[in-house]
Amino acid sequence: MTSEDLDSDLESYSDYFNFLGYKYIPNYHKIIVQDFQRHVGIKADGIIGPITKGRMEVFNKDNFCPEVFEPVLGNIEDLGCYELEKYCLNQRLSGLSWAFMDAQNLNDVNVLHNIAHAILESASGTSFIARMKSNLYGFKAYDSSPYASAGKFKDYPDCINTWTKWMVENYLEDDGKYYNGNSEQGINVRYATSPIAGINKAFIVQNLRKKIGVKNDQFL
Question: Contact 40/55 with Cβ under 8 angstroms?
């Protein structure tokens, strides 16, 4: 294989994984491929061989994880605190259903996407930054100094309320400083270094809906 052939393959893979909702970065190629393989149920070796190519022929933006493209702002879940506590919140997030519901009602932001962000960024409130700084979302936890730079909040409800308002204003409203689209794909353009964070938050949303028996296909 020539270098031109390799460059052509990487370009086609870039187009495909961006099409699925990843943030394709060549240096993270293996991580992205492994994440895709994990979600489609095959060996996560990071190599695009015949089996992986077969899965790539099957999966597209409509059947891989469409939740990565749906609106986060203005996409309200018809749920109550009971469903959230029973099916969505565990470990240190347990008991915070009212705070997440308040954030949805006050900011018009989807409660499951909000919870998914907290689950992923803080390991359900158990991460060191979450425990020491009541920071559930990795807010200002820059790669060069994640703990030192991370924002500190009074408690988890304060974090949920403050961060959600900030996220809406900066990432989800079309005049926001970091706006790249009202979706997890759009958020991940600027929010995280990780090329797989948006997809994995969206998969958490998908799994939470399965647990509570809600199928939100309005935007798929």
Answer: yes
